[in-house]
Amino acid sequence: ARARVASARHTMKEEKGASLMGAKRLWLEEEIQDDLRWLYSVKSILHAEVSDFQDVELLETGPFGKVLLLDGKLQSAEADERVYHECLVHPALLHHPNPKKVFICGGGEGSTAREVLKHKSVEKVVMVDIDKVVCDFCEKHLEDNADTFKDPRLELIIDDAKAQLENQRDGEFDVIIGDLADPVFGGPCYQLYTREFYENIVKAKLAPGGVFVTQSGPAGVLAHTEVFTPINRTLASVFPRVVPYLQHIPSFADCWGWNMAFKDGSEQAPLEAAQLDERIEARVAEGSGALAFMDGLAWVGITSLNKIVRKSLEGEKHVLTIDTPKFIHGQGVKQVGF
Questions:
Q1: Which DSSP category does 252 fall into?
Q2: pTM score, two decimals?
Q3: Distance from C-alpha of 146 to C-alpha of 187, rounded to nearest angstrom
Q4: Which entry of 179, 182, 254, 277 is annotated as an active-site residue?
Q5: Could you give the count of Cα atoms lying within 13 Å of 308 in the half-sphere of its Cβ?
Q6: Fewer beta carbons within 10 Å, N or C terminal of the chain?
Q7: What angle do CA 169, 52, 218 make, to 5 degrees?
Q8: pLDDT bracket for residue 15 (50, 70, 90)
C-alpha cells in the first residue's frame, strides 16, 4: 500500500512528566503539505534495513499499531491497511466474471497479493516489485502476509513493473492492479500514471472483459484535484468506463482514492450491493467472514461521492502524459531534533 508521500522525520520530544521517569517519547512527523504537518507517537523501532533503493523500517506506533515506512514515509499501518487493500483489490476482482490471472504492479508488502489470493478462481498472480529487500523484509516481519509469499499461485518478480508488464503477451491478464508509489517530482512512478502507459501497455495486456484498478492518491475535499481527478480523466481517455471511489484511511491523514477501469465498459456496469454480496459469498474463500471492510453496502458507500468531488471529476480536463504529468507534495527524509 502507498500512503501520501510526505516529508517525514524522526523527532524526539520530552513531554511534561516524562522527565520524572527518566524517559523520552519518540514522535514521527510527516509533512502533509507545505503548511501542514502531523505527529504520531512511536513506541519502538522494531526492525530497520537499508536497500539499494530506500530505507525500510517497521515501527510500533501509538495510534496505528505496526507501521511500515519506506524512506521515512508511512506506507501501511496495521490498524487500517485492510481497508486500503480491500478497496484496492476486491471491487476489481468481483466485477470480473471469472478472474484467473492477475498482475500486480508494485505491492512488495504482500498485502495486495494476500487479498487477491482469497479469490477461489485465481490461478496465478504475477507480482512485480523493484525492491527485493522490501519483499523479504515484509515476508519476515509482517505476520499476516507470511503465507502469501509461500502460496504456489504467486510468482514474485524483482524488477521494474512497467518493463515486466510490457513484456507479457497481449491479452494475458484478467485483472491488473496498480499498487505503486504516488507520482512525486523526481520519482520514477509518475510514468505509470500516464495515458501512454494505460493505452500502450495496460489496455493491451488485459484480456477481453479485463479490469484495471489503481490507487489514485489523496481524495479528500481539499486534495482530490492533485492527482485523483486527473488519473480518472486520463483513464477515461483510454477506457470506455471508469469508476472512481474513495474511503477515509486514518493513517493516511485523508480520504484515499482509487479508479477502476473496464476494458469492455458497456458490458460491466457497477454491481448493485446485493450482487456484490452474492459474489463475495460464492467466490471469496470463507465468504464475507474473510473481509473486514468490503461488502455490498460498503461498495455503495465508497462510490457515493460528495458533491465537491463529483463536480471536480466532471470538470477535470487534464490528461496525464509523459510531457504533461502532475505531482503531489513530497520530498525526502530529514533527521532533526525537536
A1: G
A2: 0.91
A3: 29
A4: 179
A5: 9
A6: C
A7: 70
A8: low
